[in-house]
Every structure is written in structure tokens, then in C-alpha cells.
Structure to design on (977 residues):
């Protein structure tokens, strides 16, 4: 959960200069680099890590080394280290990946893995990645990614994994295909010669051949056993009798030898080893705090010199760890030797020291082991936001799960910590229940800051569920939030701003956004800051301040693209706003550019529900307004499928309303009247009780859109009086709220109704409002009135605006030709493909037509995503299209795939 | 008795007998408490009540961390 990476996890462990040459194994490792994976799978203490480190040192090969620990079960963290390990040799590697770390928790892990594989393939150079201690990984997403890496391994990548337990990979398949090189326990076993060389050359114990043979057979050539035996033998006069005793004993090898080794150490060293065995990493200041002594540095050096299972983690020898097996035995020894109270005291000292060293996550770990739960909770509070922002909620969840249930249930701080975790994992119903319990807890007074945080979370959850009444009430009850947690303040004003927006209070929204910006800056949360800036641009758009909105948009886009190769998800709102501004100015090229840019952002944005309202809905509008006969309905369908996948179906009525609106657009190719009539038959649409009218705090939502669609649908089916009523009210509300675009649209609609009833058309006011900002878009929705608009602009002396209107005007669109009204999209000319599609291409196309992404299709067909892409390129070429939606539409027209 | 109960039949605590190679001193015996160890024919047999499958896997994992050789796992009663 800490931001900085521990460099020691990325160092190839330092091995002793003297080592046993194990050339047969080096050759195996060397040969293995021709395939995707080499697996060293054997029990602890078999010498796996040492072997790989020695081989790397001998071959002087560049390597990305990654020592895993349990916390790397967080996919986000795993990927950050994985990328950082590669970036040590390839500067800038992975900059484009994971710019939105939150993605790691919300994204399909395989999409992230695909990006990673592609980035590695793009490096071109050979890349060797060693994953040390793979057995600690037990979380599904991380294992999925590992399996994908092994499976879709680009030719230039070679993985080496060391593990005590076979990993969850398709090993038998890889074996059968010759893609796997394995080094297992029998291979790692020291031969007689190796044992002799190890004992003599490395450990400095000279023995007769038959004594070596006895040790080798008693330890079964187990590296750690031999090393312990050597430690027990060093400086002993009676080697022969020791070996006899050892060989004659039935005791478990390590257990026997551990006693020998510990006995031979001076008391000071023994207690030092035991006390410090509780630490994950040993540094002089840390061990001194735990032991209460001041000889940590000397002790660590001395232990390493005498080969006592102390492994340096960096070349400067400032950090060490114990050999895992030795550490485990030491901890058992400690637990057997000291009282529970003494053990807790050690952990408490470790926790204090780690906190002062800034390693707060480890400090929490030891506070929990010390059973000092108040301290653990207190240490976690400041960690939560950072870790969830980085998508490392798994580590947080693991720590929170270690509080005793009774404590976790009764402690408000822990409840709130769990609540934030739920929030970031989108577990809103669990969160509501949790908050409900906390709120209704009787006989207990919540501290003011806890109560405030509780109400804030309640408000945020309600907002997410679209329950604005509850949200507003809860936010009103939020008391003073603690000053040292500015992100809470950012959340508070952010949600107040959202409420103000849906309630049409634009000035209040701006004020709250200003406060959010301040708090987000104080919280050092760049995502929130970007979010605020985009929201300001959105408010400008609502007010019809197109140039201000565009200026802000361009500036932000530049900043964001400079900072990140791929913009963060909070820029979704921004792209939506930018596309709408371009559409209102009828700058189709710009709208197209933004829309393409946004949709090519790919995985980082795709999983959000805002994707639909901010990208797909304006995209469909662009397709209609450009009038190139593109399949805009398919775009909306895609949006619905997307929301379906996210279980966010409450937003679907908005899309259906947009469909009706675009159907009534003169440049769309469908029958406006039947769409309008059908929609009006939906229960609740006419009387305003349908859920589409419920204020919806989705990003980028235009609050009055459904009322506008209602008015125009009524007008389209000829119910002019009702239409006028709704439109008049719409105009009044827009005027009062200062939403100029909506006001212009309402005025145009009123003019259309007047025209239909044979009354005079007056567009003076609409033109007066629209001209200063060159607001052309709404006039294109009422293209039949265009001549009136152009002359109104001329009369008002707005020559430039009149010219802009005429430039955008397509006289053919003033009325839909009868032929189009009845026609289906298949009216476009049928193009016979230049070349038949292969079976594989048809298969790919079929999956794409079902809405699958390249990654999903690749999994389904067991081929690499890059291959899917290649197939698609061929398909586009053969069908003469340049987009997947077009390809699907064309293939349907040609009967290549089912409708 | 099956070792793989279906979710419909929740496992109750049961006695297990875990057999590993070699004799264990107090240090490793303590690590596997509350299982009771006894030694026979060069093996150590740990026996005792294990709450559920999660606890059993926990014991096996602790054994794995000591690097010893696992010979058998048996459910004794029930």
C-alpha cells in the first residue's frame, strides 16, 4: 500500500563469491531460455534462488528480477513491481500501462495482461524475467495474469519461476508442447561431488570422503541440510562423532541440525536471531529497535560472514533477510521460548520502529500481531486512500480481515475502513448494510468526526444508487470532517457539486467544484483534480459558453496527454464535453478526432458506466449529425450491452430517449414518427412518472434531455398543444437555470410547433442567444427551419453566424424523403467482398458481432489478441470498411453472419 | 469418509492423523499445536481435532514451510 517501491524486491540476491559450480543445472537453465517458461519447483531450502542467482552472475545476462511476497497478491501491486523490474533495463517501459492504477481493481485482469504482453513484444529485445517465490501468490487475478503471460508469451520473453508449490498454470499442456523446462527436487539434490565441493570450498569444512557420503545420504543432498550440517561442524574437533550421531538419529534433519547450530552460537547471537526472526527485512536501525541493543549492523555482517542463512538484499549490505526456512525455524524457536506477552512486546517495538521508518504497512502488520488493534486501526486510516487509489485494495482487505470479528464489528473506525474498501470495490449493498449497522448502534456515542465520515459515506452510496433525496439529506448531516484527511473534504464537495448539477443549480455547482479543487490539491489526488477541471468545462457547456468550455478542454487535454500517455478515467467527462462542444459548433472533424481518441483509450476507461453517457451517446449523435449513414443505433446498442455487463441498467432509459431524439433528427435515416409514437406508448413517459425523468447523477448527463425528447416526440406525432406546454416549461426552466443551449433548443422546438400549426415562426430570440457562441448544432436538429434561422441571423446583423448556419445546412435534410422513412439500413449499396472471408475470419467476426473485445475473442479462440487484430485488419480490407461496427453491419448485410 | 465434502454438507470438526518423515523436537511440535505428536518407525504422527478444511490446509501449509516430507493425511473418526 505504500507508494514507493521497495528496491530490494528487484535485486538479484547477492550470493557468496565461493559457490558450488552446478554446470549441469546452468546448462538446463541456459537451454530453457529458448522457451517461454523455466520452472524451478522444489521444497524450501533446495537452493533454487541461489542456483538462479549464480547462473545469472556467471552468464552476466540482464534480468528483470522480482522477489514476490504475500502482498503481491494485489494485482495492481504485482503489475507495478513487474513493470518496474523490466523498467530497470528498459527506461520508460510500461509508462503507458496502468496510468490509472484503479483500473487494476476494476479492469478485467486479462485486458491488463494483454497490454503488458503487447508492451513486452514491442520491446523487441530478449527479456528474461525471474519471479522468485511464486508459491506466495494465491489470488485469482494475479494467477490469471501469470497464466496468460506464460500462455501468450511473446517470443522475446522468457520467464523463470521459483516456487515451493507447483503454480496454477497449464503445466501438463506446456510440457506436452515442449514449452516448459523444469528443474525439480531430484535435479537440485547435491551430488556427492557437489556436496564435497560445497562443504569444503564454500563452508570450509574438510571431511573424509566417506563422511561426506554419510552427510550427503542423511540430508539427501538437500542444500539447507548440508549447510546446517556444515555450520554445526565448523571448528569442531569431533567431526566423526558428530556425523555418527547425526546419521544414526531418526530425527528430522533440520530439527536436529537447528539445535546443533543454535547451541553452538553465543547467547547474544542466539537471542538476536530469535528476536529479529519476526521481521520481514533486517536493517540495522530496525533490528536495534526490536532487540533494544545497538550492535545490529555488526551482528548482521557477522552472521552473513559466518554463512548463517543471512541473505543480503542489496550490494551495500544495508538490508538482509533470513533464509525462509531458517526464519521459520527461528520463529518457532522464539514462540517456544518466550511468553505470549513478550512476543507481543517484540511486535509492538517492531511496529513503532517501522512506523518511524515510514513503512506503515509493515507497522500495521506488527501492530496486529501485537494484538494492539487500536494502534493498527489508527495506522491504517491514513493508508486507506492511497492504497485504494492505487488499486491495492487486496492488501488492505487482508489486513482488515485480521482484526478479530468482535473488534471489527464494534469499532467504528474499522467499520469505516471496511466501508471505503467496499466503496472502491463497488460493493454498495454490503456497504449500505455496514453503514446501517454502524448508524443504528445503540448505547454508544460516535465521535463527531466518525459521525461526519459515516454520513458522508451514506451520501456517496445513495448518490451512486441514484437516490438523490437520501444523498442530499445525508450530505446535509455531514458535520466537520477531520482536517488531516483532505480527501474526505474533496469527496464531500464533489458530491455536493454532483447534486447541485442534477438539481440545476449551476452556480452552486461551480462553488462546490472550487472547494473540491482546493481539497483535492491538498489531498494530492491528481485524479480528483482532473475530475474537477473537466467538470468546470462541463458546467460551461451547459451554460452555452462554448468557447470557454473548449478552451478549458483543450488546455486540460494537453496537460493530461503530457502527464500520461493514456489519459486517466476521470477525463471521460472531459471527452464527452469536448465532443458535445464540437458538435454544437458543427466542427465534425474535431468531434470525430476526440471521439476516436477517447475510444482508442481502450481498457483504462472501458469499465466505467460514464463511458456510455460520456462517449457512446455523443458518438451516436456525431454519427447522425455527420449524416454519412453510419450505424448510430449500433453505437447505442453497444452502450446498452456495456451497461448490462456492469449491471447498471438504470441508465438504459436515457439511452432509449437518446435513440428517439436521434431518430427525430433530420439527418438520421429512420422513421421519426414511429419511433416517437412507440416511445410515447411506454408507460410513464407521458405522465412524467417513468424513471427516465429521475435525476441521474451520471457524469455528463444533461438533466433536461428526456423532457426535450418528450416535447419533440409529442410534436412529431402531431400533439402540438401538449408539446407546446412541455416545451414552454422547458424553456422557462432552462432560462432560470442559465442553461443556454437547452433554452435555444426549446425555442427552436416552439418554432417548429408554431410552423406545424401554420403560425408565424420567430427565431429572433434563439438566434440572439446562439450567435455569440456560434451555437450551430441545435439548428441542425431543426433543419426544416434553417432558412428562417439564416434570415433571422441576417436581420439581427449576425452575418458571421448566418454564414456558419448556411455552411452547415444541407437543404436535402429539410424533410426526410419518403423513401428513407420506410427504408431499413440495408438500403445502402451492396458491396461484394473482393475476397472471400476465411473460416477463421468468419469466426472472429462472429465473436466481434456478439460484442466481444479482441482480448475476449482471443481467449475464446485460444489465439493471441494480436492475431485477432490481424484477422480484423484482413476482414476490414476485404469488406472495404475501417471499423468493427461497420464490418459487422456490412457482414450482416451480406448475410455472412446472422442478423 | 470423503475428504471432499460438498458445500451442502458442512464439515464439522474431525480428528486427523498426519504422518511425516523423521522425529520432531519440541520446536516443530510446538508449531503444530494443538496436534499431539507421537513417534514410530522413524516417522512422526500428529493427531488431533481439526476444526474444518481451512484449518487442515493451514496445518499442511505450516508443515510445508518446515520443508519436511509428508507421508499421509487421514481422517480418523466420523
Amino acid at each position: 500500500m505504500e507508494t514507493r517501491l521497495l528496491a530490494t524486491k528487484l535485486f538479484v540476491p547477492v550470493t557468496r563469491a565461493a559457490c558450488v559450480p552446478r554446470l549441469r543445472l546452468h546448462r538446463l537453465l541456459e537451454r530453457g531460455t529458448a522457451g517461454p517458461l523455466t520452472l524451478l519447483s522444489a521444497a524450501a531450502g533446495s537452493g533454487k534462488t541461489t542456483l538462479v542467482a549464480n547462473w545469472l552472475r556467471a552468464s552476466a545476462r540482464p534480468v528483470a528480477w522480482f522477489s514476490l511476497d504475500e502482498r503481491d497478491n494485489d494485482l495492481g501491486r504485482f503489475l507495478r513491481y513487474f513493470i518496474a523490474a523490466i523498467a530497470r533495463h528498459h527506461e520508460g517501459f510500461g509508462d503507458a500501462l496502468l496510468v490509472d492504477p484503479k483500473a487494476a481493481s476494476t479492469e478485467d485482469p486479462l485486458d491488463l495482461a494483454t497490454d503488458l504482453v503487447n508492451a513486452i513484444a514491442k520491446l523487441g529485445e530478449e527479456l528474461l524475467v525471474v519471479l522468485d517465490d511464486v508459491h506466495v501468490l494465491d489470488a485469482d487475478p494475479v494467477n490469471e495474469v501469470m497464466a496468460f503471460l506464460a500462455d501468450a508469451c511473446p517470443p522475446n520473453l522468457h520467464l523463470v519461476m521459483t516456487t515451493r508449490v507447483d503454480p496454477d498454470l497449464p503445466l501438463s499442456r506446456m510440457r506436452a508442447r515442449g514449452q516448459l523446462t523444469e528443474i525439480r527436487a531430484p535435479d537440485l539434490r547435491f551430488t556427492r561431488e557437489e556436496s564435497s565441493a560445497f562443504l569444503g570450498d564454500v563452508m570450509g569444512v574438510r571431511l573424509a570422503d566417506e563422511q561426506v557420503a554419510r552427510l550427503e545420504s542423511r540430508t539427501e543432498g538437500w542444500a539447507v541440510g548440508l549447510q546446517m550440517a556444515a555450520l554445526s561442524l565448523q571448528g569442531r574437533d569431533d567431526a566423526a562423532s558428530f556425523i555418527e550421531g547425526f546419521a544414526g538419529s531418526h530425527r528430522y534433519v533440520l530439527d536436529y541440525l537447528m539445535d546443533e547450530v543454535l547451541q553452538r552460537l553465543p547467547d547474544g547471537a542466539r537471542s538476536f536471531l530469535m528476536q529479529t526472526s519476526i521481521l520481514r527485512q533486517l536493517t540495522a536501525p530496525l533490528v536495534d529497535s526490536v532487540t533494544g541493543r545497538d550492535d545490529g549492523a555488526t551482528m548482521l555482517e557477522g552472521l552473513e560472514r559466518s554463512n548463517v542463512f543471512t541473505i543480503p538484499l542489496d550490494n551495500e549490505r544495508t538490508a538482509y533477510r533470513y533464509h525462509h526456512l531458517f526464519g521459520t525455524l527461528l520463529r518457532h524457536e522464539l514462540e517456544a521460548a518466550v511468553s505470549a506477552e513478550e512476543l507481543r512486546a517484540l511486535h509492538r517495538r517492531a511496529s513503532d520502529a517501522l512506523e518511524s521508518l515510514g513503512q506503515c504497512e509493515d507497522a500495521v502488520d506488527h501492530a496486529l500481531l501485537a494484538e494492539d488493534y487500536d494502534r493498527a486501526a489508527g495506522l491504517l486510516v491514513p493508508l486507506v486512500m492511497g492504497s485504494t487509489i492505487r488499486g491495492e485494495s487486496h492488501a488492505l482487505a487482508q489486513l482488515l480481515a485480521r482484526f478479530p470479528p468482535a473488534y471489527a464489528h464494534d469499532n467504528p473506525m474499522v467499520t469505516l475502513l471496511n466501508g471505503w474498501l467496499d466503496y472502491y470495490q463497488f460493493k454498495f449493498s454490503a456497504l449500505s448494510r455496514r453503514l446501517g449497522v454502524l448508524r443504528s448502534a445503540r448505547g454508544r456515542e460516535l465521535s463527531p468526526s466518525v459521525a461526519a465520515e459515516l454520513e458522508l459515506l451514506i451520501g456517496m452510496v445513495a448518490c451512486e444508487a441514484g437516490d438523490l433525496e437520501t444523498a442530499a439529506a445525508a450530505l446535509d448531516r455531514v458535520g466537520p470532517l477531520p482536517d488531516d484527511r483532505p480527501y474526505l473534504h474533496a469527496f464531500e464537495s464533489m458530491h455536493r457539486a454532483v447534486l447541485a448539477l442534477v438539481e440545476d443549480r449551476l452556480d452552486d455547482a461551480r462553488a462546490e467544484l472550487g472547494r473540491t479543487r482546493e481539497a483535492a490539491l491538498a489531498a494530492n489526488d491528481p485524479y480528483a483534480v482532473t475530475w474537477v477541471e473537466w467538470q468546470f468545462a462541463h458546467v460551461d457547456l451547459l451554460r452555452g459558453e462554448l468557447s470557454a468550455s473548449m478552451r478549458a478542454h483543450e488546455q486540460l487535454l494537453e496537460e493530461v496527454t503530457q502527464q500520461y500517455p493514456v489519459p486517466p478515467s476521470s477525463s471521460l467527462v472531459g471527452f464527452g464535453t469536448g465532443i458535445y462542444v464540437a458538435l454544437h459548433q458543427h466542427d465534425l472533424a474535431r468531434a470525430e478526432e476526440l471521439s476516436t481518441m477517447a475510444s482508442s483509450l481502450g481498457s483504462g476507461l472501458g469499465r466505467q458506466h460514464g463511458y456510455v453517457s460520456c462517449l457512446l451517446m455523443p458518438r451516436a449523435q456525431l454519427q447522425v449529425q455527420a449524416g454519412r449513414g453510419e450505424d448510430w443505433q449500433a453505437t447505442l446498442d453497444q452502450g446498452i450491452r456495456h451497461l448490462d455487463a456492469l449491471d447498471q441498467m438504470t441508465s438504459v432509459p436515457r439511452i432509449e430517449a437518446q435513440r428517439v431524439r436521434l431518430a427525430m433528427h433530420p439527418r438520421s435515416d429512420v422513421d421519426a414518427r414511429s419511433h416517437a409514437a412507440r416511445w410515447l406508448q411506454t408507460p410513464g413517459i407521458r405522465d412524467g412518472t417513468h424513471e427516465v425523468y429521475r435525476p441521474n447523477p451520471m457524469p455528463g448527463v444533461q438533466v433536461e434531455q428526456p423532457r426535450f425528447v418528450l416535447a419533440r416526440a409529442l410534436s412529431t406525432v402531431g400533439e402540438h398543444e401538449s408539446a407546446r406546454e412541455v416545451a414552454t416549461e422547458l424553456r422557462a426552466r432552462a432560462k432560470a437555470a442559465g442553461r443556454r443551449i437547452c433554452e435555444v433548443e426549446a425555442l427552436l422546438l416552439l418554432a417548429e410547433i408554431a410552423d406545424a400549426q401554420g403560425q408565424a415562426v420567430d427565431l429572433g430570440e434563439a438566434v440572439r442567444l446562439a450567435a455569440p457562441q456560434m451555437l450551430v448544432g441545435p439548428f441542425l436538429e431543426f433543419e426544416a427551419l434553417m432558412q428562417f434561422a439564416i434570415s433571422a441571423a441576417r436581420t439581427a446583423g449576425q452575418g458571421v453566424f448566418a454564414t456558419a448556419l448556411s455552411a452547415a445546412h444541407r437543404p436535402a435534410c429539410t424533410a426526410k424523403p419518403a423513401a428513407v422513412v420506410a427504408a431499413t439500413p440495408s438500403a445502402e449499396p451492396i458491396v461484394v467482398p473482393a475476397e472471400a472471408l476465411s473460416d477463421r475470419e468468419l469466426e472472429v467476426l462472429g465473436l466481434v458481432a456478439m460484442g466481444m473485445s479482441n482480448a475476449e475473442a482471443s481467449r475464446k479462440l485460444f489465439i493471441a489478441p494480436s492475431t485477432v487484430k490481424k484477422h480484423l485488419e484482413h476482414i476490414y480490407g476485404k469488406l472495404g470498411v475501417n471499423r468493427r461496427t461497420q464490418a459487422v453491419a456490412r457482414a450482416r448485410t451480406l448475410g455472412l453472419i446472422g442478423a | 469418509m470423503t475428504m471432499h465434502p460438498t458445500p451442502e454438507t458442512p464439515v464439522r470438526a474431525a480428528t486427523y492423523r498426519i504422518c511425516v518423515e523423521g522425529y520432531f523436537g519440541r520446536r516443530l511440535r510446538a508449531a503444530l499445536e494443538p496436534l499431539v505428536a507421537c513417534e514410530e518407525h522413524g516417522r512422526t504422527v500428529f493427531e488431533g481435532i481439526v476444526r474444518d478444511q481451512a484449518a487442515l490446509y493451514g496445518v499442511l501449509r505450516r508443515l510445508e514451510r518446515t520443508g519436511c516430507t509428508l507421508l499421509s493425511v487421514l481422517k480418523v473418526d466420523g
About this structure: The CA atoms of residues 459 and 471 of chain A lie 4 Å apart. The first strand of chain A starts at residue 37 and ends at 41. Strands of chain A lie at 37-41, 64-67, 127-132, 157-163, 180-184, 282-283, 310-312, 319-322.
